[in-house]
Amino acid sequence: MVITTTKTSQENVHSTFASRYVRAPLPRFQMPPNSMPKEAAYQIVNDELMLDGNPRLNLASFVTTWMEPECDKLIMSSINKNYVDMDEYPVTTELQNRCVNMIAHLFHAPVGDNEAAIGVGTVGSSEAIMLAGLAFKRKWQAKRKAEGKPFDKPNIVTGANVQVCWEKFARYFEVELKEVKLMEGYYVMDPAKAVEMVDENTICVAAILGSTLTGEFEDVKLLNTLLTEKNKETGWDTPIHVDAASGGFIAPFLYPDLEWDFRLPLVKSINVSGHKYGLVYAGVGWVVWRSTDDLPDELVFHINYLGSDQPTFTLNFSKGSSQIISQYYQFIRLGFEGYKNIMENCMVNAKVLKEGIEKTGRFDIVSKDVGVPLVAFSLKDSTRYTVFQIAESLRRFGWIIPAYTMPPNAERIAVLRVVVREDFSHSLAQRLVSDIEKVMKELDDLPPRAIMKAVHVAAVADETEGYKGNGGHLKKSVTDTQREVASYWRRVVKEKTSGVC
Ligand SMILES: *Cc1c(COP(=O)(O)O)cnc(C)c1O
Description:
Elements: H1 9-14, H2 38-49, H3 69-77, H4 90-106, E1 118-122, H5 125-146, E2 155-159, H6 164-172, E3 176-180, H7 191-197, E4 202-208, H8 220-234, E5 240-243, H9 251-254, E6 267-273, E7 285-289, E8 301-305, E9 308-312, H10 322-359, E10 363-365, E11 374-379, H11 387-395, E12 403-405, E13 414-419, H12 426-445, H13 448-461, H14 478-492
Parallel strand pairs: 2-3, 2-4, 4-5, 5-6
Antiparallel strand pairs: 1-7, 6-7, 8-9, 10-11, 11-13, 12-13
Helix pairs in contact: 3-10, 4-10, 5-6, 7-8, 10-12, 11-12, 13-14
The structure holds pyridoxal-5'-phosphate.
């Protein structure tokens, strides 16, 4: 990149817009040899970012996109604090401990009113799950070693609907992931099938409170009952982890009587994303353990850091403090009442959206009324176009809505999913319904050939689905057409199916 050097004050006057400094494409591979004025750098970066989507219209994500200005202020004033410097920032450490206590109580951990709970703040649920998984693995290994049994083939039982971080955990930490397959019409882990899959090498069964794909809560209570029976029969003591990344801040407020947490004896650890319905910007998650017995001491590092003992159990060392500080802000600012209000409001808006979508008569609703506030819906008839085209077309209106196929064995079902967050209002819900209607009308009016042409080309080339082109001629039957359309879009989104977060 070439930056014109401004020689005279006269030229400076004209060099206010950053593009005037840039005479060549922006650097992408190597650091530029020379510096540039800060205003120019700011403008270049800022302008390039204009092409990103608008986070508020990003309905693909559970992650918080709006906080109060007071919180933004707290974040900016703590942005230069390294969380790990606990000795220097003892108050920040104290705030994280208070958050852990509050969450543990919310999840009915068996700790006294003034007793410190066991848990830690993380970057998100993924890190939380790595830590919880490691604790299970280590505990299981220790037990097997003590019994003189092999301990080299640990596995975890989950539903095929697990979030990608479980696959990561399995691969990074060498634990086999045994997935209970789904069925068309049933998109969460079946507790009975899960318990059937448990064997002596199972380090835990992971249940999801708020399936990423449909928002549905898995039946942790039934899982607890069935697993207790199996443990009795076999003499094992297979525990449960609850991945409450999104549901952990929904269920306690909306369904206080639903037993999914430490009220169930086999639930030994729970993770929740502070940056989802915990209402904090991206960068905070939590994991809490039932008791000290469930967190092997050998995983906790005691570091003498600048003069004091600092127990740590995280994957990373340094990280920002702002998210932890703002989590504490949200807890005391909103209180139980405030969280309940917000979650109720999200549910109402999800209902408005769901009813609007149902009213078009063109979709089946796949999400449940009890669960995380989201609406997942599939096209009743995808012979002419699919949810993937609807998602693409909605982009033009600024809406970012993911479309994806379900995991095995429900791959034939493709859905759109709209996550309802606090900042998604009633009127935005109505607006979205009317934009969906517009898009459908446009797609309905397209000549079928225009849609099918692209599909045909791709379908012929698609060998992975086992489809063989029929001498270059389009097939006419409904099933074939449906298969072609589905196969085309599967190719398009092959790498994207687990991209929803
Ligand atoms: C979002 C999500 C995760 C991953 O959480 P991050 O906080 O984004 O790391 C894990 N499990 C479920 C069920 C989720 O919804």
